[in-house]
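Researcher: Re-running this chain for the archive, since the previous output was lost when a drive failed. Same request as before.
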Amino acid sequence: MTLTTYPTAAAFLEQNQALLEQEEAVNNLMLGTALVYQKAGKEARPLVLLSILEGSTPIFCALQTPPRNLIVYGDPLKSAAIADLVSDYVVAQRLGIPGLLGARTFTESMAQHWGRRQGVNWTVKKRMGVYRLEALQPVRPASGYLRLAKERDQEVAIGWTLAFGQEAMGESNLEQARLNTAVMIRESRLYFWEDNGTPVSMAAVGRPTEHGIAVYYVYTPPKYRARGYASNAVARMSAQMLARGRQFCMLFTDLNNPTSNKIYREMGYYKIEEFVEITSNTPQLQ
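Model: Regenerated structure tokens:
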């Protein structure tokens, strides 16, 4: 086995796209992110892109947008050898890897072997469901309608993006929120549910792959919750994506939130994988 790194997303995809597309929806986060960077033609910011080859065949790949977690995908039966190579490389290069993110079986096994080799204590921070939709089921109607967000909506979108980040991930960045909302509005990927002339919920799509697209930034301010706004926004937006030729939509859920998981299942989303976010407080990884 050999560990390989890549200078560009294009080079990474040339060798690893076929591996990732074996489970396209499961790997939407890594695959979709790499495809976005490939389309841009250059790295907008430094990426960590690596894989492990067995002979000439990729059996593992990983992507990081620093300073976020390392997204990982590989064969659970080979996680020990993979963990040895990756952990040694991370320590040698003094990379800032605060945590791992990936399918539960592989990621937990990789973290366990990594910990034994490097003396690192890993902790499961969050468990997430990876959900997929091919056919939408009817949802209980809510008052209002779905519309694309416009430039005039950016300040509202920024505020909601910050609130979403804090609520969903425990972090928020004003500069990044401004950039993300501006790009999503410009590319017609951010939607509002509006009721009586007032935006009451938000959702977005992005990270397109060959057959699918991700749904994210689903957020409703507390005063507008429990009225069906978010579920109707996601349902209408998902229906639009399917009508435009996407074979599936995918999204992540917090498995500790049974209400949102139930709502997504009722509209036709079903769980295809469980992801875990595993973090470490070990200084050598910071």
